[in-house]
Design a protein that fits this description.
Ferritin, 71% helix, mainly alpha, 8 helices
């Protein structure tokens, strides 16, 4: 399977205090993740994808309420952010099948989710621009982490097991797809979220209007269970 066409070199140079705060915060998170997980990239993915699924839901909720209050159109923000949250949740469900987190790691997941949710909710209320910039930098680090994960697989230090069924179905991967293929499409998703959130932050900063950035890998729409039973 050929890798999705993404630019791995994209990065946003911090401009102003808001960007520098976001950049410093994400670098601190990266240091903590490197210290705790080292090269256990499967387990790192489980915890980080739990955190990564929070911003899209928070942003969508607050933008939804803002549009109701102001009686104005959201210009596609709500759907985009909801799609991001769902996509990150599917990353989590996939890596749970791969890493099989321990009871302690599940506790870390719950704690990290609550702490980050409350923090990000407050940050978004104070400065949506900074919040989206945090996500943009967070996704830059995610692209780097998954690139390192691919290197570990290529060197044989991480087993290249068969792709979980949930990944085959969600990304429409071939039946013989492996973990390496999954990591490549997940990395492409993260690069897409990186570009979308930096664009949102730029729009809020008045730098440029946000433009629609299509995902580089198609996802299978998720149908509610009640539709299957209908």
């Amino acid at each position: 399977m050929s890798p999705p066409p993404i630019d791995l070199t994209v990065t946003h140079r911090p401009r102003g205090l808001s960007d520098r705060v976001a950049f410093g915060f994400v670098k601190a998170l990266r240091f903590c993740a490197d210290t705790f997980f080292a090269k256990r990239y499967g387990h790192r993915a489980v915890v980080l994808e739990t955190v990564a699924a929070v911003p899209g839901m928070v942003g969508a909720t607050l933008n939804h309420l803002k549009c109701l209050r102001r009686m104005e159109d959201d210009r596609g923000w709500i759907k985009t952010l909801m799609d991001e949250a769902e996509n990150e949740r599917m990353h989590l469900m996939t890596f749970i099948e791969v890493a099989r987190p321990t009871a302690f790691e599940r506790f870390v997941v719950v704690a990290a989710q609550w702490v980050f949710y409350l923090f990000f909710f407050g940050l978004y209320l104070i400065s949506p621009r900074t919040a989206h910039r945090v996500v943009g930098y967070f996704e830059e680090e995610a692209v780097i982490s998954y690139t390192h994960y691919l290197a570990e697989i290529d060197k044989g230090r991480s087993p290249n097991v068969a792709a979980p069924q949930i990944a085959l179905r969600y990304w429409n991967l071939p039946a013989d797809a492996t973990l390496r293929d999954v990591v490549e499409v997940v990395r492409a998703d993260e690069a897409h979220h990186r570009d979308v959130n930096h664009a949102f932050a730029d729009e809020l900063a008045g730098v440029r209007p946000a433009t629609k950035i299509p995902a580089v890998w198609p996802h299978e729409p998720l149908e509610p269970h009640w539709r299957e039973a209908a």
